[in-house]
Structure formats: C-alpha cells, structure tokens
Amino acid sequence: MSETPKLDIKVEMANADLRNKDFYASLEPELQKQFSAFPAMRWLSCVSDSSPMKDWYLIMVNNIVNENFWELGDHPELQWKLMAVAGCGQKQYHSWIPLAKRKKISKIAEYFLRWYPSYNDQELAIIMSGMDRDGFEQFVKSTGADDKELKELLKDYDAENGTSAPKKASKKRKAD
Length: 176
Description:
Radius of gyration: 26 Å
Structural class: mainly alpha
Number of domains: 2
Number of strands: 0
Largest sheet: none
Strand content: under 5%
C-alpha cells in the first residue's frame, strides 16, 4: 500500500518565489486538491525580517493576490498564478503569520458578529458604542429575532451598559 503524497508548503513557496506560474497545473490531481490558497497566501506574504524583500512580498501579496481573493475561490489555478506573479525571482525564507486571537467577547458583540462576521474588535467597538438602547432594540428587531431572544439581548445590553428598560407610564384612574 503506497502513501498518498503530501503537498509541502516549502515547495509551494519556493515555486512562488521563482515565479513558476505552471506549478499548480503540473501537480497531480490529488495534490491539486490539497492546495489551499488562503494559507499559501499568508505564508507567501511573510518573509524573514532580515530579507530586503520583506516589504516587496507584503505589498505584492496584498496588492496582487489579496485583491478580489475570495471572488476567485473557485479558481485555485488563477490564485496560484497571482502568487507566482508576486514572487521576487529568488528563494526566500517564509513563515506563517498566525491569525489574531479574539479576546473573550460579550454576548452583544457575539450577536453583532452573527450579522457582521468580518468585523474586527475595533469595528465592533465602534458600532456598539454608537448605538443606544433604542437603536440596539431596533437593530435586533430588524434581524428577525423573536420576542424571547429580543428580551434576553436587551437584558444583556442593560447589564453590559448599566442601563435599564424604560419605565412604562402608569395609568392613573380618574375619580368619577
């Protein structure tokens, strides 16, 4: 029984560095299935701090590969060719850029992330700070939340912001 060959990120980076636009097309179909453009793009964008090409890769990957990256998701060969265009013509040492870890977030922030999943912490803080209780209530209603979910979210909002539900006006009985 033979082992399934594995695509090696170091081989991918060497081929991108050397601008081998045909690398992806030359892979066996099994290896093409293993190619994942997003991690390859992240690896490609980061070269050693001591390399004079550090800025080159950051700029080229951002301007060439990252531009419309997700729209090209069904075209891994084209994504590869863009990575090869970003190469500098000489092998470089590439490393992984870990994704930023999100701090523990509040229930309100979690709710916003359901509707705005690409927002970073700063964008979340801006949208949350610019919305008062009434605005938040309207937002939740506009998302189609049921009454139970709305009530829970408003309770969480009040707890996080030190606010409380507006008092309902009491009806006074008039004397006959």
